[in-house]
Amino acid sequence: MAEQKTIIQWYPGHMTKAKRNMLEDFALVDIVVEVLDARIPFSSRNPDIAAMNHKKAQLIVLNKKDLAEQQETDKWLQYYRNQGFAVAAINGAEKQGIKALLNEIKKATEPVMLELERKGRLRRPVRAMMVGVPNTGKSTVINALSPQKAAITGNKPGVTRGRQWIKTAAGIEMLDTPGVLWPKFASQETALRLAVCGSISDLVSPMNEITIFLAEYLLKNGKAGLKERFKLEVLPKTADELFEAIGRKRGLIAAGGIVKTEQAQLLLLNEFRSGKLGRYTMDNYARIVKQNVGE
Ligand SMILES: Nc1nc2c(ncn2[C@@H]2O[C@H](COP(=O)(O)OP(=O)(O)O)[C@@H](O)[C@H]2O)c(=O)[nH]1
Ligand SMILES: [Mg+2]
Q: What pLDDT sits at residue 155?
């Protein structure tokens, strides 16, 4: 019998409300900055935002570039550039790429300012809003831009709840918004990738399935990283064998010599999330773009 997979859905009430607020806030800003996770530059795009923003300039930021494969990041930047978006790849946590990001914001909003001048009015600070799924680093990026520590950051999805404007040093006013997902993911794979990268709360995620998905991904795409990090001479063949090996290497052993599998699973997930296994782009450009043209 085929194993029954849990369908992952996470669209709590506060997100419906946040989406409504977002739609209202579009009217207040000059540019919408969608912050994606560079490890999943396709899966972390919210289709609702694309559908709702018809009027304002949009910038696509690939944040956490330190955790992603540089070549893949470059391909995805080009992909979005080709679609007419302003783009930037940054590491918000280390404040890398921030200057280029500010320049992109200024460049993309210059037509708005020129229009003001044409009407005989004065320039004013650019107003930008940060949007994106939970945990992509929206608040971190705002903090990186801000002289005062203002936005609340956290490693849990859903930390940002309220609405808050922040004045940044570069004469850009920024609106932080809570992370928003959408009601139905295109595929279970999209949901699993979002969960692995921390954009779907662990509290509502089937952790067993998510860590098996990650283990299978790494057994295929992260052989060297796994071997090095866990000092494995031979790479296991299955997810279960990998958890077993990790448990033994890290001493996660219960009475009777049995590996504490759950702990080994969470350890793998945490080490992936913090980049200790290397840099990975789970949304492979060639594979996804090929799939989309139906090849
Ligand atoms: N490695 C890495 N971690 C980051 C980066 N930017 C943010 N983070 C981490 O990602 C987590 C979520 O950040 P936060 O700004 O709260 O995300 P938000 O939910 O989108 O506002 C925090 O633990 C940050 O430290 C980055 O560029 N690289
Ligand atoms: Mg936040």
A: 59
The pLDDT of residue 53 is: 85
Q: Quick one: which of 228, 212, 223, 230 has its CA closest to 266?
A: 212
Phi first, then psi: give them for residue 191, nearest 5 degrees: -65, -45
Give 154 Cα–ligand 2 centroid separation in angstroms: 7
180 CA to middle of ligand 2, Å? Answer: 10
Would residue 212 count as lying in a domain?
A: yes
Give, as residue ranges, everything with CB less than 5 Å from ion ligand 2.
138-139, 160
Ligand 1 contacts CB of residue 199 (under 6 A):
no
Task: Starting from the CA of residue 63, give the closest ligand.
Answer: 1
Indicate which residue's Cα is closest to atom 16 of ligand 1: 153
Parallel, antiparallel, or unpaired: how do β-strands 126-131 and 57-63 relate? unpaired
Task: Return the ligand number nearest the Cα of 142.
Answer: 1
Question: Residue 260 is part of which domain span?
Answer: 206-292
Ligand 1 within 6 A of CB of 135: yes
Which pLDDT value is given to residue 153?
A: 60
| pLDDT per residue as tens digits for the range 30-63 | 999 999 999 999 999 999 998 988 889 999 999 9
CA-based end-to-end distance of the chain: 31
Total domains in the chain come to: 2
Q: Which of 135, 197, 201 to mutate to test the pocket of ligand 1 (most atoms within 8 A of CB)?
A: 135
Whether the CB of 66 sits within 6 Å of ligand 1: yes
3-state SS record for 203-259: HHCCHHHHHHHHHHHHHHHCHHHHHHHHCCCCCCCCHHHHHHHHHHHCCCECCCCCE
Residue 164 has a pLDDT of: 66
At 123-148, the pLDDT tens digits run 999 999 999 999 999 999 998 887 76
**What is the reported pLDDT for 145?**
83
Give domain status of residue 238, yes or no.
yes
198 in a structural domain? no
Segments of the chain scoring below 50 in pLDDT: 1, 158, 161-162, 295
